[in-house]
Design a protein that fits this description.
Elements: H1 8-11, H2 23-36, E1 40-42, E2 49-50, H3 54-63, H4 86-92, E3 99-102, E4 106-107, E5 113-121, E6 129-139, E7 142-153
Antiparallel strand pairs: 1-2, 1-7, 3-5, 4-5, 5-6, 6-7
C-alpha cells in the first residue's frame, strides 16, 4: 500500500491543454459534476444512482488538498519515492501484487455519508489498474458501499 494518501493534485493530474488548470479547477470542472449528476452507480442495483451531498464533496476536497503519511503499523506500507520507479519497488518486494492508494475521506455534516477514492495499479506487469470513487453510508452503526464511479483504467 502506498505510504501516503492521494491528494487532489494527484487525482486531478492533467497534461496538454488542461495543464494550465489548477487541480482544484480540474476537480470542479471534470470530477465533481459527474458525481453530482448523473451520480454514482449503485453497488446492488445497476439501474439506481446515488448522489453525494454537497457537504460530502466539499469535505472531500478540503481533506485531500495535501497528501499525508499513514500513521499505521497495521499495513505493509511502502514509500515508493525511495525507489527509482514503482516497477523497481514492486520487483524488489517479495509477493508484490501491486499498489493500493487511498484518498482521505470526505464526510457530510452529520457523519452518515462519506466519499473516498481508491487506486490500484500493478506496475510489475505494466498497464493494469483502475481508480474509483466510493460513496458510503452509515446505517445502524455500520458502513456500507452505496455506489461507485470509475475514474480511470489502464
Amino acid at each position: 500500500m502506498h505510504h501516503h494518501t492521494a491528494s487532489i493534485s494527484e487525482l486531478c493530474h492533467a497534461e496538454g491543454r488542461l495543464a494550465a488548470l489548477t487541480p482544484e479547477e480540474i476537480w470542479h470542472r471534470y470530477f465533481r459534476p459527474p458525481l453530482e449528476d448523473p451520480g454514482l452507480l449503485s453497488e446492488s442495483n445497476f439501474e439506481t444512482r446515488h448522489f453525494p451531498s454537497t457537504a460530502t464533496l466539499d469535505s472531500f476536497l478540503v481533506a485531500n488538498r495535501h497528501s499525508v503519511c499513514f500513521p499505521s503499523d497495521d499495513f505493509f506500507l511502502v514509500d515508493t519515492a525511495k525507489f527509482d520507479s514503482k516497477q523497481q519497488a514492486c520487483s524488489t518486494l517479495e509477493n508484490c501484487s501491486g499498489w493500493w492508494r487511498f484518498s482521505r475521506i470526505g464526510y457530510n455534516e452529520d457523519g452518515t455519508e462519506a466519499i473516498v477514492h481508491t487506486d490500484y495499479d500493478h506496475p510489475k506487469y505494466g498497464l493494469m489498474g483502475m481508480g474509483y470513487f466510493h460513496l458510503l453510508a452509515l446505517t445502524d452503526g455500520n458502513w456500507s458501499i452505496l455506489a461507485r464511479d470509475m475514474t480511470w483504467i489502464s
